[in-house]
TrEMBL record:
Family: Belongs to the citrate synthase family.
Catalytic activity: oxaloacetate + acetyl-CoA + H2O = citrate + CoA + H(+)
Originating species: Pseudomonas putida
One GO CC annotation: cytoplasm
Keyword line: Acyltransferase, Transferase, Tricarboxylic acid cycle
Gene behind the chain: gltA
Keyword presence, Kinase: no
UniProt-recorded name of the protein: Citrate synthase
Claim: Cell division is one of the keywords in the record: no
Top-level lineage group: Bacteria
Catalytic residues as annotated in Swiss-Prot or TrEMBL: 306, 364
Length: 429
């Protein structure tokens, strides 16, 4: 794995040889672990040129717009697989055979309910709290309810926690929604598929159980697949970092949810709809494009750009197709917000500012439009992302704990004060 070497010449010191590591695909990486011994560290805020770990789960080629989970292209998974199968793949490395799939689905269904006492936990929150704020709290609280699977050094405990998280996230997400609406929380129904059950818990009430549209359930399932994992993004790196200290899985996932919430990451799907509302009409697009280009204006076109993709986000392509299907099924034609979004995309894609910077629509640009059409309120969009991404987070957490690892502890370039003595309060100016 380390045939080539890089040589680093530091003025006044002997050259340092650094091994170059080669993955199965993708750029080689220079192994700088030995550098600390020379009294130097690397400086890379924002991890622009740093691989934080070795992983076998997901591969992205940002220049070509490729996304593979365990080697399988996202387009094929979205077309030929389903979310629970994709979960099995991410967690175990291979797609399940029929027997393994039936067993996995049954195990997940076995864990869909949450501890009855967890319900009372919700009462501590204001009903108008942001659903992501409640999610951070209730997912973290799972560690107070499921003590029996918290030994991170026990592979069986790790397995049970992983299944519990995948199984309980839809239940918790729907509970958050029902609480915000002041409606009774719905128990999961294990005769339904994962996506159908989520829609049932979201939209049905004890006094009215309506059948779930198969097209909407399929679209929901596809949204889950498209968000399932995305290698070492901010929230996944947060989960790994939290996990590296030995924190329990529920606490680590709560940390991931908090990191996901930001508008530069998962919060972008909500921000896209807020932005479309703010733009209001096609006649205002030019004004907002100008704002996005203005360096003195913090406004950015939400749902555009990506740290890794410098080509189309492959998830956005599948999402757009799903968007057309859902709007067709619901008979939504001439939706003004969709029209606005399409026009915005068209203008941005032909504008030299966006072309030069390779700013394409990302997954969040279309997901919000579909979620809104399904009837999911804007404030729940990032919760849906968190629900779907939980399997990715937990797969990375498990991968890290399954081999030797070190606590994540970056260094810094210190530019603060030198050592100085405290001046008595009476003598301070
Ligand atoms: N609108 C206008 N200008 C932009 C945008 C945008 N959405 N995104 C990047 N730029 C400009 C940026 O100002 C910079 O210009 P310059 O080179 O003149 O200084 C250049 O493009 C490079 O951008 P960057 O901010 O250095 O890129 P980054 O890799 O640090 O940030 C990003 C990536 C996703 C945070 C950023 O593109 C962004 O804030 N986009 C909007 C939020 C969004 O849609 N986020 C969802 C990402 S996909 C879902 C997920 O994985 O979470």
């Amino acid at each position: 794995m380390a045939d080539k070497k890089a040589q680093l010449v530091i003025e006044g010191a002997a050259p340092v040889e650094l091994p170059i590591l080669t993955g199965t695909v993708g750029p080689d990486v220079i192994d700088v672990r030995g550098l600390g011994a020379t009294g130097h560290f690397t400086f890379d805020p924002g991890f622009m040129a740093t691989a934080s770990c070795e992983s076998k789960i997901t591969y992205i080629d940002g220049d070509k717009g490729v996304l593979l989970h365990r080697g399988y292209p996202i387009e094929q998974l979205a077309e030929k697989s389903d979310y629970l199968e994709t979960c099995y793949l991410l967690l175990n490395g291979e797609l399940p055979n029929a027997e393994q799939k039936a067993q996995f689905v049954s195990t997940v269904k076995n864990h869909t309910m949450v501890h009855e006492q967890l319900k009372s936990f919700f009462n501590g929150f204001r009903r108008d709290a942001h659903p992501m704020a409640v999610m951070c709290g209730v997912v973290g609280a799972l560690s107070a309810f499921y003590h029996d699977s918290l030994d991170i050094n026990n592979p069986q405990h790790r397995e049970i926690s992983a299944v519990r998280l995948v199984a309980k996230m839809p239940t918790l997400a729907a509970m958050v929604y029902k609480y915000s609406m002041g409606q009774p929380m719905m128990y999961p129904r294990n005769d339904l598929s994962y996506a159908e059950n989520f829609l049932h818990m979201m939209f049905n009430t004890p006094c009215e159980i309506k059948p779930i549209s198969p097209v909407l359930a399929k679209a929901m399932d596809r949204i889950f697949i498209l968000h399932a994992d995305h290698e070492q993004n901010a929230s996944t790196s947060t989960v790994r970092l939290a996990g590296s200290s030995g924190a329990n899985p529920f606490a680590c996932i709560a940390a991931g949810i908090a990191a996901l919430w930001g508008p530069a990451h998962g919060g972008a799907n909500e921000a896209v709809l807020t932005m479309l509302d703010e733009i209001g009409d096609v006649s205002n697009i030019d004004k907002y494009i100008a704002k996005a280009k203005d360096k003195n204006d913090p406004f950015k076109l939400m749902g555009f750009g990506h740290r890794v993709y410098k080509n189309r986000d492959p998830r956005a392509t599948v999402m757009k197709k799903t968007c057309d299907e859902v709007l067709g099924e619901l008979g939504i034609k001439n939706d003004p917000q969709l029209e606005l979004a399409m026009r915005l995309e068209e203008i941005a894609l032909t504008d030299p500012y966006f072309i030069e910077r390779s700013l394409y629509p990302n997954v969040d640009f279309y997901s919000g439009i579909i979620l809104k059409a399904i009837g999911i309120p804007t404030s729940m969009f990032t919760v849906i992302f968190a629900l779907a991404r939980t399997v990715g987070w937990i797969s990375h957490w498990k991968e890290m704990l399954s081999s030797p690892y070190k606590i994540g502890r970056p260094r810094q370039l210190y530019t603060g004060e030198l050592q100085r003595d405290i001046v008595e309060l009476k003598d301070r100016k």
